[in-house]
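Before relying on records like the one below, remember that each one covers exactly one chain. Contacts with other chains, cofactors or solvent are not represented anywhere in the record.
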Amino acid sequence: MPQNSESQGPMYAMLLFIIAVQLLALALLPSMQAGDARVFEDPQSTANPFVYVVLILIFTALLLLALKFKKGWMVSGFIIISVAASVYYVFLAFVSPVLALVPTLAVMLLLRYYPEWYVIDIFGILVCAGISALFGISMTTLPVLILLVVLAVYDAISVYKTRHMVSLAEGVIGAKAPLLFVVPRSKGYSFRKDQIAFSEEKTARRGAYFLGLGDAIIPTILVISANAYLQAPSILGINLPAIGAMLGTCAGFLALLQTSRDRPQAGLPFLNSGAILGFLLFSLAAGVPPI
């Protein structure tokens, strides 16, 4: 794989997106803890990750079904509403419910009428941070570790075997739905006008690189869970196991960069593995049990 500055720049931009998501999610953590915001009643239950996976499967199936019947507007509308709800929850951590409605409505209008790549990316960071923080405080580290392993396997199967995640990505691009980070390969790129399919990669030059929001969300859940539930030495409010998960995520992303870019790659096997290894190593270094 050629390693040139043109191809490396967008990749490092994606890494910065992931780091931004993790830092913002950590910033949201105190407010969510104060409000006792949780998805699951029992954060220690090992059934929680499987409930999460079932929700993902249902969400994916509904989107694929809508795409199959050429209902792209349904896909876009459903996702925009979901994104707006997540953004509302993020702003709710800082302002009153009434004030939080203002940026939320702005998000919906921008995503509906001007879904350009930088708009998608900005709100992608907000959404990923909100979802990561919410699920991170909803599960202790053991359920989260199970979640990361299961989703890493699922991601590999859905990209390399069944390829339904590739079909979903193509549909998301066609519907201009905000489920991907988009980083242009050159100036003048417009996500609104991009119609390229991943199956055409060998014969057409993509105008941008894409990274699923889930690739930022899932490893960040471990970062948040570690910081919320483990008693360990910390630096600037981030404990060592959480720092290890963050550094491990970065290492996993750098490993992902060594794979071929001529076809779609499953990100979670690399990112989750790195996050888990970093988390375990820094837990050991801190002298605290990881679960």
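DSSP finds ten helices and four strands in the chain.
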